[in-house]
Amino acid sequence: MRGTIPVVASEETSPQLSTLRRFLQYVLLYRKEIPFAITLVLIGAITQSVGPFFLGWSIDRLIAQGNLQGLLLLLGLLGLNYGLGVLAIRGQIVRVGWIMQRVLAQLRQDIFIKIQSLPLSFFDRSEAGDLMSRLLNDVNTVNQAFGLTIAQMLGNSFSLVGIVIAMLSINLKLGLLSNLVVPLMIFTTSLFARWARARFRITRQTIGELSAKLEEDIGSVREAQAFNRVEMNIEEFDVLNAANRDANVEAVAITSAFLPSIDFLNTLATAGVLAYGGYLAVTGAATVGVVTSFLLYVQQFFRPIQILSQFYTQAQSAFAGLERIFLLLDEPSKLQDAPDATEMPPIQGEVRFENVKFAYNPDQLVLKGVNLHAYPGQMVALVGATGSGKSTIINLILRFYDVSSGAVKIDDIDVRSVTQASLRRQIGIVLQDNILFTGTVAENIAFGAPYATQADIEAAAQLANVHEFVTSLPQGYTTQLGERGAPLSQGQRQLISIARAVLINPRILILDEATSSIDTRTEALVQSAIARLLQGRTSFVIAHRLSTVTQADQVLVIQQGEIVEQGTHAELVNQQGVYANLYALQLGTADTTVLQN
Asked: What are phi and psi of 373, to 5 degrees?
């Protein structure tokens, strides 16, 4: 690929013109290949436009005078002419298609790069299915409009110019008569295109909504069946599907009415040439050959206009898709590295939150002045109700979001002053619902260290207590896993995710309910693996089962974005506060009045 296209401001232009300019920037990436393609287009256009002239000339100068030898020679020249035209047209289709497919591939690449680089706050308000629709459906729409017909459109544009010049040079009056319908065609095309563009915008929007619904329902089919939501999901999908169908029907109704309108104008012009040309031939003001040439030219004249007009209306769907694509590409990447960002040096593991405030929405603080200090090698447990701010603290350490005010520092270095990649490569994370990917077991373990050796992968698996299980699989470490790690159990996926964290050897480790939703035997293996993983590392552990954090060096109790209690397990139990009641609640001896307060 040739790199991403920079965003160019064009506030003074219309949205469609701005979109076209943005798209042409992609085409100009291949400017070295364009001259040859244009040359082929010109050759094809010239060969198509000179044919009717010589046919008309042969009627007046050869056939009328009985010059058989000259006629045969002319037919041979015309054969060579059209043969050259066929080769040129084929060449232009191949060459222009070559350029356009690379343009579209670059467009897909830029969309994927953009999606990968967008902050998590963008995905909080966006649906995966809609993003997939932009990458696949919208680009495919552009491909259908430009990738397959752009060569034909360019050829017909040049042919049209050549035909107009030839008609005006042969007979000025007939030429002007033939072109009288052009303003009507321009008006008709503009009118239909405006209607079609509005409808096609709706079709692109509805296909995005439909894709989002489809992606969500496929991913949750088990839950739908378990909660008897199948019929309701079908009804909801039917509504979205009908909306997309109706939008497409309206768009097709407009485009299907367009071609008959152009055909009517074509017939009108042909009738005008026949009537006026016949009159000129009868009165001797024009020869039969000239009239014949004009009739042929009129047919050629309207063929490219029909194709160009049809392309113009089809292009409205492509422009609607491009508008959605460029809106995504223009989405600001708020979490960019600072211009003077440096590489994070080897982390020792000290973490500080200095009066940190954070809000996902400007009017609602999630963290309200959090202060914490974790020393190198300490285990810090985060405890609190769902939505209290535990995961937000973790997200700020990883710099998935930037603080609204205050600072997050690691080894006295503000995380905003270093590159995100150098920060995150020294932090490991094991989540409650770890994602495994389609690929081998070895590839999943080496997800964060793709160049790790097989020996390193197996060593990490042994530390994570998963080596024995992996070697029992039919193909061992080369066993292929399906989507999200199928068919492994939750516990097996968790052990592989721990091996993934072991392999990158992080200085800071984050565990988010890493032992939940697994059986007792597997939990023992997971706990043993985590104990090895924690040694010598600073760790932050989110846990709802307080029995898993009794050995923590610090326990932070979070309520409504604030740390309300802090200390060791024993200290907090003795305080008889919120933590003590949470712990007692899990033991079945809680005083719920304290929790309610």
From this structure: -140, 110
Q: How many angstroms separate the CA atoms of 404 and 202, rounded?
A: 37
Q: What angle separates helix 454-463 from helix 490-504, to the nearest 10 degrees?
A: 120
What are the tokens at 489? 């159990």
Residue located via tokens 């084929």:
90
Per-residue pLDDT of the chain (597 residues; tens, 9 = 90+): 555 454 444 444 466 778 888 888 888 888 888 888 888 888 887 887 787 777 777 777 777 777 777 778 878 888 888 888 889 888 888 888 888 888 888 888 888 888 877 777 777 676 666 777 777 778 877 887 776 567 677 777 777 788 888 878 877 877 777 777 777 777 777 777 677 767 777 877 787 777 777 767 766 665 666 556 677 778 888 888 888 888 878 777 776 777 777 777 777 777 877 787 777 778 777 787 778 877 787 777 777 766 766 676 667 777 878 888 888 888 876 677 888 889 999 999 999 999 999 988 878 889 999 999 999 999 999 998 888 888 899 989 988 888 989 999 999 999 999 998 889 889 888 877 777 888 888 988 888 888 889 999 998 888 888 888 889 888 889 888 877 677 788 778 888 888 888 888 888 988 886 555 555 666 677 777 777 777 888 989 887 778 778 888 999 999 988 999 999 988 888 988 888 888 888 775 544 444 444
Q: How many angstroms separate the CA atoms of 94 and 101, rounded? A: 10
Cis amide bond preceding 35, omega within 30: no
CA distance 583 to 544: 10
Dihedral Cα 410, 412, 416, 419, nearest 10 deg = -70
| Strand, helix or coil for residue 159 | helix
Please indicate whether the domains covering 15-329 and 427-505 agree at the CATH topology level: no
Beta bridge partners of 537: none
Q: Which of 234, 38, 233, 264 is nearest to 153 (CA)?
A: 38
Cα 6 off chain centre by: 17
Architecture of the domain whose range is 427-505: 3-Layer(aba) Sandwich (3.40)
Q: What tokens appear for 486 in the block?
A: 């199928």
Please, how many CA atoms are within 13 Å of residue 465, restricted to the half-sphere of its CB?
Answer: 18
Please, what CATH class does the domain formed by 15-329 belong to?
Answer: mainly alpha
Tokens coding 266: 């074509």
Spans of all domains in the chain = 15-329, 427-505
Residue 498: Cβ-neighbour burial (10 angstroms; 0-12, 13-18, 19+): buried
CA nearest neighbour of 159 among 318, 299, 291, 310: 299
The encoded tokens of residue 71 equal: 């006629």
Secondary structure (3-state) at 376: coil
Strand partners, 532: none
Q: How many CA atoms lie within 13 A of 105 on its CB side?
A: 10
Tally of CB atoms within 10 A around 238: 11
**Predicted TM-score (pTM) of this structure:** 0.67
